[in-house]
Amino acid sequence: MTITNVTEAEAEAPSRTRTAVRDAIPAIGVYIFLRLLSLEFMAILARYAYAQDPTKQVYPDGSTNQWRGYTSSMDALFSWDARWYMLIAGQGVEGPVGAVDENGVPYLNRLMFFPLYPWLARPFAALPFVSPMVACLIVSAISAVAAAWGLYLIGRHVHDHRVGIMLVAAWAVAPAALTQNGGFSESLFTALSAWALYAVLKHRWLLAGLLAGLSGLSRPTAAALIGVVGLAALIAAIQRKDGWRPYAAMLLAPAGLLAYVGYAGSKVGGISKYFEVHSNTFGAWWDYGESTTKLVWDVMLGNSEDATKPIRVLNVLVLFGFILLMVMLIANKAPWVLSVFAVATFVLSVGSHAHISMMSRHLLPAFTVLLVPALAMSRMSNRNAAILLVTLGILSGWYAGWLPFISGQAI
How far apart are the C-alpha atoms of 247 and 200, rounded to whole Å? Predict the structure, then answer.
């Protein structure tokens, strides 16, 4: 009887896998369609902008200490952070501390960019005829599909199949969605977050801890996911649920972040030195929301000419929109891990000093707030939902092209 049961379980596993893949295909298909639509509109705007002023300098490239112009949409998909990731994917973190590369940029600056994304790209970049740029695009494409799948599972778990599809669609048309398909870590981190949160919802503690641990190698704001997974595991342990697994999750979740910060700090002369480089070179530090608060007040009160620039007004509107969705998510009594993840990501984003143009990108992985519009769209007719999503996809593509090519801001 035991042998028969094992055989039946083994036989059912492929069937469950096929069913899971089949159920997710509509969501992934919708995601791919909306992103292709958005990227095509961005490319049209990029060609128009280039024709109007071919010599315009668009954004500073910290990896070469030069300003960059533009020739195509690839210059949007590989701006700022993406230039660093492409450099690391092709060359790695090379050179002794204090040395500079061929562009005069210190090698230690590469340590400021968390390594998981370029590490995953390096094997592809080693293949014949595959450039570091293409390698990064491959990792982003795979990660984006994995993220879409994870979002679908969460939407279906919390509500139903249709909400799962709409959650994926809403993420596909977010303002900074272009970074999902460029040389950025957004898709990778979102995929790790979605599957880790889904694992928590399903009480799969080892998987949740492992994914949270990996996320700590992808970006510092992974602290939001690490905290949520750790807190959920702690509550399960206190309630004496699921045996030893929640304890293992608590140990695994922070491992990646602590390990990398410790490693990078040892390379540059200490943890404090590591954060000094972040602050002095990249203008990134924790300021308790002072810079964000000042910007919001300046925009609301029109305190200066800079405060009325479209880039500032648009991103303040994005910030207010996020807050509204976050409040509605909590009011709708979503599972607490999803609400806390959104709040933690929000706090880390607005509490850090960074250029306002990056706000939309930093908030993009907090996909859980999109459950609110996803639920609303799920109640629409197919026709109305399609019209709305296509319109939002075009607007997302416009923003993706306008931000670097017209406003000249980093993404």
Answer: 13
What band does 406 get if pLDDT is binned at 50, 70 and 90? Answer: low
DSSP structural state of residue 100: B
pLDDT value of position 11: 53
List Cβ neighbours of 225 (8 Å cut-off, separation of 6 or more): 192, 193, 196, 197, 212, 215, 341
Mean per-residue pLDDT, 291-315: 78
Given this model, what pLDDT does residue 389 score?
Answer: 97
Quick one: three-class SS letters along 124-154? HHCCCCCCHHHHHHHHHHHHHHHHHHHHHHH
Structural domain boundaries in the chain: 26-406
Cα 74 to Cα 67, 70, 116, 250, 408, distances in angstroms: 16, 8, 22, 40, 15
The DSSP string of 345-386 is HHHHHHTEE--GGGHHHHHTT-GGGGHHHHHHHHTS-HHHHH
d(CA 236, CA 219): 27
Phi, psi of 60 (to 5 degrees): -75, 135
What's the CA gap between 226 and 250, in Å, rounded? 9
Give tens-digit pLDDT for 26-53: 999 999 999 999 999 988 888 887 888 8
- For residue 68, give the H/E element and its range: strand 66-68
> What angle in degrees, to the nearest 10, is found between the helix axes of 2-52 and 132-158?
120
pLDDT tens digits along 325-362: 999 999 998 999 999 999 999 999 988 877 777 788 88
Nearest to 140 by CA among 186, 107, 176, 177: 186
Check residue 8 and give its pLDDT: 57
